[in-house]
Amino acid sequence: MRFLTEQDTRLLDRTSWAKREPFGLGARPAVIVVDAYYGALGERRPLDEILDAWPSACGPAGWDAVDRTVGLLDAARAAGAPIFYLTGLAANPNPWNRKTRPAPRRRNPTFLRIVDELAPQPGDTVLEKVTPSGFTSSALAPLLTAAGVDTVLVCGEATSGCVRATAVDACVLGHRVGVVEDCCFDRIEASHWMSLFDLDQKYADVLDRDAAVTYLTGTAS
C-alpha cells in the first residue's frame, strides 16, 4: 500500500490490531449507493475543464467508478438484493458542513440528481440525508431491518466522507459490511486509498466489483 510508511508496515506485521483474515459477508445483502449525483461528478471531461462549472466534481475517476457500478447493480437486481440510494436534501444547508462558501447545489438544479447511468429502477429506494452517514438522518436502518438484510455493500462518493461514515455506522449497527473499492471515488486520491485501507482494517471487507458480483450471484435465491 503506497501511502503507508515503513514504520506502518513494520507495525502491521506485529500488532494485534492488524486484520489477519476477512470479517466475512452474510447471506442477505443490500447495496447502498452513496451520493452518485451530478454534483459529485460533473461532465465527462477532464477535471481541470469542469471545476469552474462543477466545483464539487470528482471528474473522470468518478465516472470510471460509475461505469463499474452499473454491473454491480445489475448483479444485485438479478440476485434479488434490495438497492438503496442515498442523496442530499436540496432544501437543507447541511449544518455539519463547516465550509463557508454557498453550496453549489443551490445554484445548479441538477446537482443532486442521481446520474442517468445509475438511475433508480422500480423497487429501488431513494433516501435523502442531511449528515455524512445514511443511518443518522434517514430511514435506512429500519428499512434494512424490515428487509431482513444482514450485509451491506457500500459504493459511491466520497470514499473518505459519506461512504466511510455510512460503512462505519453499518458495522456499528451489526451489519456485515463490504466496501466495493473500484465503485467508490473521492476528490483526493490519497484520501480514497487510505480510507479504504482503514475501513478494511477495522469495519469492513474491501473488495473489488468483480468479487462483489460473484458474491451477489452466490446469494441469489
From TrEMBL:
Membrane spanning stretches: none
Entry's Gene Ontology molecular function annotations: hydrolase activity
The name this protein goes by in its record: N-carbamoylsarcosine amidase
Source organism, top-level taxon: Bacteria
SUPFAM superfamilies, A to Z: Isochorismatase-like hydrolases
Keywords for the protein's UniProt record, in alphabetical order: Hydrolase
Source organism: Pseudonocardia sulfidoxydans NBRC 16205
Span of domain Isochorismatase-like: 61-210
